[in-house]
Amino acid sequence: QAYLYLSFTFSNHLCFCSQIDDKEFDIPQVDTPPTLESILNELEDEEEPFVLEDTCVLNTDNMDAHSCDTSSLASSDSGDPVHLKRKRRTVDLNPTVHGSVLRHSLLKGISAQIVSAATMSGVIAVGTSHGLALVFDTNQALRLCLGSKATGAEFGAVSALSINHDCSRLLCGFAKGQITMWDLANGKLLRTINDAHPPGTAILHVKFTDDPTLAVCNDSGGSVFELAFRRVMGMRSCDSRCLFSGSKGEVCSIEPLHAPQDFRDHPITHYSLLAMASLTKILVIGLKPSLKVWMTFPYSKSDPSSVPQLAWQFVPVQKTVNPVLAFSKGDTVHFLLVKKEETGTIHVIKQRQLHLSCDIISLSWINSRTLLLVDSHEKLQVVDRPSQEILETLDLEQVQLVYNSRHFKSLATGGNVSQALVGEKACYQSVSSYGGQIVYLGTKSAHIMALRNWRERIDCLLKQEHFVEALSLAWSFHEGTAKAVVGLFGDPVKRKGVVADKMVEIIFQFTEHALKKCPEQGKIQVMEQHFHDVVPVLVDYCLLLQRPDLLFNQLYSRLVENTVAKGVFLESLESYIVADRLGHLTTPIMRDLLAHYQSNGMMDSLERCIVHLDITSLDIQQVVQVCWDNQLYDAMIYVFNSGMNDYITPMESLTPSFSSWTEEEVVMGNKLLVYISCCLAGRAYPLGDIPEDLVVQVKNQVYEFLIRLHSADSSDEEEVFPYIRTLLHFDTREFLNVLAMTFEDFKNDKQALEYQQRIVDILLQVMVDNPDFTPSQVGGLFTFLARQLAKPDNTLFVNRKLFDQVLEFLCCPDDDSRHTERQQVLLELLHVGGVVQFNEERLLALAEKAKFYQICEFLYEKKHLHDKIIDCYLRDPLRKGEIFSYIHNLLSMPGYSPEEKQTVKEKELVNLDPSKLADLVVFHFTEEVQQIISEFQITQKYHHNEATAYLLEKKGDIQGAFDVLLEVTTKHPRNNLVTVLIMKLMSCFSVLKELTMKVLNCMSSFISLPAIIQQILQDPVYGKGKLAEIQGLILGMLDTFTYEQTLLETTTSLLNHDLHWSLAHLRAAVTRGLHPRQDYCNICLQQYKRRQDSAEEIIVFSCGHLYHVQCLQQKDCGWGVAPELQQRWSCYKCSSSKGGRGGTSSEQKRGRSTSLAQVCNSPHALIYIHPSPLSILSELSHSNEKTGLLITAQPGSENFQLKLSPPPLFEE
């Protein structure tokens, strides 16, 4: 059976050797000397065939010739052959953005019977189950075979190995507890240590520290010992010191801090730190200069079967390098930063935790940023510590990882260890790391894991033809965002240069591969999809590398050979051009682009490309012709503006005649408005800004264009100012909005202000008194003017007579057309400040004449004439229903005077909506409601009988209200009032029935249920009817009976329980023994034992006083006519101190405190007078009185009445 314990470093990759000669070493001989290859292929009993594949064959889709990749891991415990039976799993290698991070190499030259191994620079030491230690070099050539068969028989299997940092010494720990030290230079045995730890325990760990004379070991008893090696007068010795006793909690893992060569002078190394892990906590101790515990860290709750893991690593943190201890137990990895303070103390800082969803059985650092974790399912996970991202997951099933739980059980020494220490998943000695490489030992082979350098990771993806993933990974190297990077320069400039060259190489490979793999036959869609998966990637990375020359020369010259590839390439450029990642095209590509987009009808895409391209890359004549032919107006404007600095020609070309209002003309008009707005605001169309030196020039040119008297190709029939006239006809409001925004932008420009005044004059000249424009258009003009004139810095001048002329036009009473439109235009004009341009009296008169009630409301509101506003609502048929809301808001305003309210009350609104009016009155005139109720003239006048009946009912005249409704019913037999009346009566009957039910239910508490039911059935109403009519009544009474029966039973049970509880505690109190305070009578002051031979009786009271019976009789402290034993006694001393000796009547009247007495007939016999149950109940009923007198009575001789009270509180 195989186990592994190792410790190693390699400066180069391990090569493979085919076999070694076993004869020259002391290895057990067989008839035919086996080779290592034959041992590797040897089958165990009842084991499935296990075939080790060569690394160049394993997973050929994802391997190179010297390494292999796996994606998973399963293992076996050498002590349980059942675990050796394994099923092959399907290997699923899906490269992520990180690619293949680990290089997995198989050490084929290592023997199958190895048990443990230790590795250092250039050396691999392997322990076997026969007690041998085999030392290999980096070529897997066997250099030394340490030990013999006799040693193996005496010491057992090698259970732990350790090599010091200069590879001169090897420590071997054995299953039976011995430790040996070997010289690796000549294979000489230097020491055999038998007494370093208690006998009968196996060595679990033995490890050198950085001091070659100091080592530590851990046995299966859970104890840790320090081994100090001495050499005096040529004699080698070893001193052992116990660092931690297993009796305080078994330690199952130890890890000394080893400093790399570059950090041997680090201040922390002077303390020789050692981390120890028990099943409950982690300890960090310093062995030098004196033994000291620096940190104790308890675990959180985890699976008891989880094995703790420890691993040290020097990590750069905040420009300093300090050791970090990673430890885990269960599914959480903790990180502790250890640093030395200036005071000389060790400070431990807890870092961020790493949480996984699996149980960790192995933890190793492979560099300062990357960890390798193995979980209980034997999955190897590569984790980037700063980001806590899992970079890769491998399956170790084929490794068949060795577990060394048999040594934890100490089977070689009888298994006399704590069962808590047994780790079923312990594989400490099967994993060893050094110098960025980790060796995993399996039952038949050894495997080495190392990080691939950046080129290997890329090449691994390329061999699988995963070009997209390879480019993505290479770009992460280029930008410095990749994880677990090996082999790149630290200088960013050099790094980017090297990676860029590699990416160019990949791009060429990808291009050739795409052209080669293109399907030669089939549907054109399949070929297009093929290149759509390739070409955009090539374009993207060429632009990321800022290599357009590579894109347009080498790549395009190759892609143009394939017509489909050429088309996909040209179409893929659009997204990069629109995103402004590509601004310049070469002349051949621009020519091909125009031809391809035009031939395929992709004119919108072509226009988007043109407006984003550098104008110098365009053939202006060709582009302009294409734009005119295909109505690409945005592109045409861009070419004229950017290519020729001509901003007027596009306006002349785009200004439509609007003769037929076609869709094309509407598009042209909208673009023209936006274009004019951009030019006047200093912005380029459709993107960017106009050059600063051209802003003023362009603005003046646009103004000159707008105010032209005639167009260039004008005819005799053309009206003046054709451009302004055309834009006003197209969309008056939007054109005026464009002008308004322009007027805002150029307030301090004198020339611009002159142009603005000129434009306003032209607008008035064109639109006023022109029947071609609607009232809405004219109103829009004057609204625009009113806004401009209302500004505090206004410089425009408009003749006021024009406003009067517009007012008369809008308020013309003879024109009923567009009444609402004209009113809204005028109202908008007033709202923006136009009211200052009019005479308000004249305006009000014109508005009333034109029935512009909203205009009237606006003017009345300014004068606070609210009653007039109400009249406007009443006269306006469109808003008559809104009057109640207006009045409600009006009356809700604070500060509204009673006089103003009176004007509202005088309005007659009953005919509009009586219900809303009533709500309004009740809400705002509550104090006057009664007065209103008394006045029925209004409702009677208008014959509102329902309102009259309602008012009479509120007044209290129910009969009058009924008469009014009855009169209506008489006149109209089919009136709905009959139905309403019936419903009211039925509701009254239902209320009466419910009231009857309540009365009968209450009667059932005092009258028997049969008597009530008999009385109901004798009633003539129910006697002649059906039982269903009184079913609900009877069921309700039965429910009441059931409830009261349950209540009675529950109450009786509670009373019985309380009575039993009280009697039990009272009985315990009266049967308690009495202890006298002294041994003499408190009357005669003589001891009660003065006459030993007499049968003199004594009485002891609960107060502790003792008396002779004769003495109490002499003092008249006894009373009652019953026999002597039934007499009632009172304590003489207590009675005297309370003001009297107490007779029978006085004691009963005052209720004085008495004592419960016990009578003794002799000094040696005490007789207890047991009270009757009746007297106990009587005393319980008087529990609020303090009485200590024993009351004796005959049962039934008293008038007994039990008064229940809460039971007294007794302390248990």
UniProtKB/TrEMBL annotation:
Q: Which PANTHER family match?
A: VACUOLAR PROTEIN SORTING VPS41, VACUOLAR PROTEIN SORTING-ASSOCIATED PROTEIN 8 HOMOLOG
Cite the repeat ranges for WD: 151-192
Q: Which organism is it from?
A: Sparus aurata
* SUPFAM superfamilies, per the entry: Quinoprotein alcohol dehydrogenase-like, RING/U-box, WD40 repeat-like
What is the protein name given in its UniProt record?
VPS8 subunit of CORVET complex
Q: Which residues form the RING-type domain?
A: 1081-1135
The record's Gene Ontology biological-process terms are: endosomal vesicle fusion; protein targeting to vacuole
* Keyword field: Metal-binding, WD repeat, Zinc, Zinc-finger
Which GO molecular function terms does the record list?
zinc ion binding
Q: Name one GO cellular component term.
A: CORVET complex
Q: Does the keyword Membrane apply?
A: no
